[in-house]
Amino acid sequence: MGQHDNRTFGSAGSAGRAGDADTEADAGAPDAEPGTVEEDGELAALALKILVAGGFGVGKTTLVGAVSEIRPLRTEEQLSEAGELVDDTDGVDHKTTTTVAMDFGRITIRSGLSLYLFGTPGQDRFWFLWDELSTGALGAVVLADTRRLEDCFPAVDYFEHRRIPFVVAVNCFTEARRYGAHDVSRALDLEQGTPVVLCDARDRDSGKEVLIRLVEYAGRVHTARLLDSVGPQAGSG
Amino acid sequence: MNGQWYDAEAGPLVRPYAMTGGRTKPGPHGVRFDLIALVAVDPQGGADEEAESLLGPEHRALLGLCRSETQSVAELAADADLPVGVVRVLLGDLLEGGHVKVSRPVPPAQLPDERILREVIEGLRAL
Ligand SMILES: Nc1nc2c(ncn2[C@@H]2O[C@H](COP(=O)(O)OP(=O)(O)OP(=O)(O)O)[C@@H](O)[C@H]2O)c(=O)[nH]1
Ligand SMILES: [Mg+2]
Q: What Pfam families does the entry give (chain B) (predicted)?
């Protein structure tokens, strides 16, 4: 199968939406997979995925840890895969895989309904992992530090291009000058409607509030898209 | 000098994919399980105790984890302390052998309805 063959490095915009849909379909189990069940009892359980992205040291790990039971997750990526995207495998010679660590947390809403949080690895060379992480994601939190706002540009670009609903959460480090949500929204040139939330990544309630805003917003975005998609047909019919 | 010719940079000395027999891609179907695909033991899968006794320790460890609770691929990897890529290969074997069943991830076009999202929001508030 050709899953993930249209990975693009930092240029999500060049991958057409149709191509994205193919990749997303491929990431799941194929239809005739033996033993794959969809709707029976236990496996009707629902898992929702939320990504936490942002620049280096902005508080991603802190946020995931504040709201969920956090565990480190190791992926062992083949350098051949990564090497297709970045040409820095020279000098690593015989090492065939490289470890990428991610933050991973689970919030159990009730039996059969869980939220899974994934802190995305920050370095650019692991961007190909984002494509997998963002497949089927409910939405994303982009953490920002007003002292280094530009650090979150790549994440904002990425989610905007992929049309993944996201909120910007400004982590209010004590030393940082306070800006209003509106200033941040303007500075980041966010699409209209994208929520900006001020937060303290260390604080559980504050982290919860960020997630709530995201889920509310993601719900609105999806509903709007649904209405958009049925709109023209209803008009012509 | 302590005579070690390797250092932390060399990475783990047991190659991560050694326990999969060097395979880095799961099964003949080539399925790449989503990180939040849910895995449960499959009582109707046709695998009996004898088949289970032939499994390696890592396979059995994963099966044991699934037995205690339906789990996501990511959780299995974290709990078994194995890299995700390795867990994917091992799960492919378990699926082939009829030991487990794996859920499909939610397709983005079918994101949960309003009722579920409201439930999530209520749940987060109550946390
Ligand atoms: N004062 C203050 N410190 C914080 C806050 N959030 C995080 N920190 C600290 O900032 C440092 C970096 O936080 P992390 O959560 O590790 O950031 P990260 O985004 O996971 O970093 P990388 O994974 O290295 O990119 C840690 O020492 C945190 O304790 C905050 O809201 N206020
Ligand atoms: Mg971190």
A: DUF742
Q: Looking at the 3D structure of chain B, how many domains does it have?
A: 1
Domain span at B25: 8-126
Q: Confirm whether B120 is domain-assigned.
A: yes
Mean pLDDT estimate for chain B: 78
State which of A150-164, B21-35, B108-122 shows the largest mean pLDDT. Answer: A150-164
A122 lines ligand 1 (CB under 6 A): yes
Contacts of A134 (CB under 8 A, 6+ apart): A51, A140, A158, A159, A162, A164
Instruction: Give the residue-averaged pLDDT of A171-186.
Output: 88
Q: Closest-lying ligand to the alpha carbon of A59?
A: 1
Per the listing, tokens 């799960």 go with B91
Separation of alpha carbons B40 and B99, rounded Å: 9
Number of Cβ within a 10 Å radius of residue B98: 16
Give me chain A's average pLDDT, please. Answer: 75
Residue A32 reports pLDDT greater than 50? no
Per-residue confidence (pLDDT) for residue A120, from 0 to 100: 85
Domain ranges of chain A: 37-235
Best A36, A100, A117 member to test B by mutation, with max B CBs in 10 Å, is: A36
Superfamily of domain A37-235: P-loop containing nucleotide triphosphate hydrolases (3.40.50.300)
CA distance A132 to A155: 15
Measured CA distances, A151 to A15, A143, A179 (Å): 23, 9, 16
For a pocket test of ligand 1, which of A51, A52, A62, A129 has the largest count of ligand atoms closer than 8 A to its C-beta?
A: A62
Model ipTM value:
0.73
Q: Is the pLDDT of residue A68 over 80?
A: yes
